[in-house]
Amino acid sequence: MMWSIRRRLLAWLVSGVLLSGIIATLVIYVRARDEVDELFDGQLKQIALSLREQEDLSVTQPEPPDDQEERGSWSAHGIARAYLYSASRGTGKHPALEARAMPQ
Question: How many CB atoms lie within 10 A of CB 97?
């Protein structure tokens, strides 16, 4: 089967355009990834420098008062979280809610 010059030229041109498009896509991806890495490195450096300037970096939990330790302290958020946990399990009640007496 004999291909005409027009068909061979079209095949070479389409192949060349596709190949150059793939190469350009890869080059742009690598450059964009490098730029994002540099941006994140700069932000991380800024955060590290700002943390270094702070005096106290310790994280401590506040001590609960003595009366709350005995009966257990429940905030509205804690009750809602326990209820959502039990609702996701299908029981409707969380074992911790049944075991502790909730303050009135």
Answer: 15
Q: Is 85 exposed, middle or buried (0-12, 13-18, 19+ CB in 10 A)?
A: middle
| 72 secondary structure, DSSP code | -
pLDDT in tens, 1-20: 788 999 999 999 999 999 99
Any residues with CB less than 8 A from the CB of 93 and at least 6 apart, and which? 86
Q: What is the pTM of this model?
A: 0.45
Look at residues 58, 80, 70 and name the one whose alpha carbon lies nearest to residue 100.
Answer: 70
Give the number of residues written for the chain: 104
Which residue matches tokens 């150059």?
Answer: 20
Q: Where are the domains of the chain?
A: 1-51, 73-104
Q: Are 79 and 102 in contact (CB under 8 A)?
A: yes
Closest CA to 74 of 62, 85, 82: 82
